[in-house]
Amino acid sequence: MKKWCCTAVVVLLVLGGVRINAEEFSWQKTYAKISSKGDIEWSPKPFSFEKGDSVRYIDYEDGDDSNNGLTRDTPWKHHPWDPQASGNAKQCKGIHTYIFKRGVYYRGTMNALESGRKGNPIRLTSDPAWGTGEAVISGGYRIAGGWKKGASNKNIPEPDKIWHIDLDFAPRTVYLVEPSGRSASKNDKITRIPLARMPNWKVSNPEDVKSEWWCWDNPGHPYFNLTMKAEKSGRVLAMGKDTKHITGPKELYMGAILWAEFGWVDGTPYPSYIQGFDAEKRALGFEGYLGSAKSRIINRGHRYYLEDKPHYLDDPEGEYWFEKDRTGGRLHIILPNGQNPNTAIIEAGKEATLVDLTGQSTGRLTVEHIVVSGLTFRFTNVAWNLTEVPWLYSQKFRLKRHIYPACIRVWGPADDITIANCKFEHINNGVLMKAVNPGDRIDNIIIRDCEFRDTDHNGISIEEGLLWGDTLPDRAGHLYDVNILRNYLYRTGLRSPRVGAADAINVDNAQTLEVAGNVVERSWHAGINVRGAKISGNVRDCPLTRILIYQNKVTDSIRT
Prior knowledge:
mainly beta, 34% strand, single chain, globular, 15-stranded parallel β-sheet, 3 domains, 2 helices, eight-stranded parallel β-sheet
C-alpha cells in the first residue's frame, strides 16, 4: 500500500513537471524590444483588421442613416448608439462589426446599451482598405469661418486684436489644426490654444515645466498655513502672499482660477477660484486642496498661476477666453502671429465622453464582449467648473460622474472589454473604468498596443469603486483581471483634476494584473501607479492578489 501511494505521488510530480515546462507563462513572453544598448523600446503588435459575420459601414461625411449600412457605397452617418442616429441606423440592434471610414471625423457620442457574446464581440473598428488616413472619433466642433473682429467686453486689454464667435455650447478646450491633407491624418499639426492666463508662461525648461510660474514669498513668520476669510461668505480660506506680483486692483484677481502647488510633498497643482483679496498684504485667498483651508500646506516658494479672466487675454502667441451665457456663450481668441481665424481651422471641445460602455444610465446593465480597435480619438471637452470637488456630500461621498469623462469610459460593471491599436491625442482621459456601484464587477479587461499623447488627465485608469474611508467591503464594486500591454504614453496629465493625480497608467486594487511592455515619456504625473489588494482600512478579505509589472520604461516623469 505504501509503495502504491509513493508511485502515485511520483507520477503526479512528473506530470506536473511536464505541464510546467510545456506551457509558456505570460511573464516569459517578450513585450518590448531591447536595443543593442540594452534600452527598452516600444514594440506594439501591428493593427490587424478583424470583422464578424455581420458588418455595418459608417461614413460621417457622406453617409445617410436611411441607407442600409451594409456596403461601403451605402453607409450610415451615425452609429446606432449615437443619440443623433435616425432611420435604419437607429433601429439597428445586435452583434455587428461597425467600420468607421478612414480619413473622416466622426462627430458624436456613443452609449452602449447592448453586448456581444463570448467569442463573438461587438466591434468598433476601421478597415485600411476603406479610406485613407485616420478614422477619428472627435469630441470637437470644427469652426472654419464666421469669426468677427473685435471684442465688446471692457476688461479685454486690446479688443482690436481679438476675434470672436458665438457658440451654443461651452468649450474648455480649443485647438488650432493645420491638416496635412484633405483627410484626417496622423501628420496633422495640432496646437493647443491655452486659456487666458497670467503670467503667459511657456515650457521654456523641459526639466522644470513650471519655471515661468509665479511663486508665493509669504514674508515673515509663519510662512505656511496662512489663512484669510472669503469676502462674501466669510469662509476661512488658504492664503498666499506674493509681494512681487500681486500689485493690481482687486478686479484683476477675484473670480480667477488659481493653479497652485501644495505640500509638503505632493505638489500636484490644483485649480481653485480666488475668493479673497488683501491689497495691503498683497495676498490671495482660495480653497485648500480638499476644500478646507488647511487640508494641504501652502508654503513659501510654492508656485502658481492665474487663468480664466478677460483681463488676461493678451498673449500674441495664442490664447482664448470664453464668456459663458447659460449653456453657450462667446468665444474670444488670439491666434499665434495674429492669424485671422477665418483662414484657420479651429476645433473647440464639445463632447467629453465619446464611447460610453456604461450601459443604462443607472450603470446596472453589464456591457460585455466589446472590442474597440484601429480608431483615433481627439479633441474632447471637460466639465466647465474646473474647481469642482468630485464628491457628492449628500450621498456619502459618492463620485460625480460628469467630473470623470473619457474617450472610452466604463462607469459601472463590465466584462471582456478589449481596446487595441487605438490612438488618443489631445483629449481629457484616454480610457477610464470604475466599478462605482455596489455589486459592480469589472473583469477581463485588455488595453494593448495603443498610443496616448497630450492628455489633460490620465492615459489609462482602471479602478475599483471603493474610496478612502470605505471600511465596508460592499460600498462599491470591485476590479478583477486587467492586462495593460505594449502601450505608449507621452505628455500625460497636463491639467490634473481638482482632486487626484493624473498618472499615465493608474490601476487601483485589481485582483490580478499584468502591466508589461509599456513606454511612458514625459508624464506630468507618475508614470505607472498601481495599488493592490484593497484600499486602506477596508475589512473585506483579499485571499489572492497577483500583480506583475515588467518590461516597462518610464522616463522624465512627475514633471509637476
